[in-house]
Design brief:
Layout: E1 27-29, E2 32-37, E3 44-46, E4 49-50, H1 52-69, E5 74-83, E6 93-103, E7 106-115, E8 121-131
Antiparallel strand pairs: 1-2, 2-6, 3-4, 5-8, 6-7, 7-8
Length: 134
Amino acid sequence: MSGEIEAAPMCFACGEDNPIGLNIRFQVQGDQCSAMFTPNENHVGFSDTVHGGIIYTALDDVTANILYQQGRKAHTAKSEVRYRQPARVGEKLMLKGWIETERRRLIVLKGEVRRAADDVVVAECESSFMLENA
């Protein structure tokens, strides 16, 4: 089931009009989503390490955008994140998300963040999304 895509210009992760947002530009092909993101000094948690909440925000949106771009309205129901390596300010990160399984209103998606320089996994997640009105 597909619907009309609702604009989200103030989304913290991808909103074009959000002056303090991450401004990530997602590309969706079928059941996969990808993007590049380079965190800056505004995304620091400790020293030059990117805050875990920023990493999670990127993961949540690289998975959610698959459904969003398909015109399916859904909300994160549950998410489990595993942080594997620190990300540093100025490091280009590759984001990838995909649909793992789908049953009725529940869709399980997986996502990962990798350092572009060496392809090392920084963080990964498994998230459950609930479709609205399915």
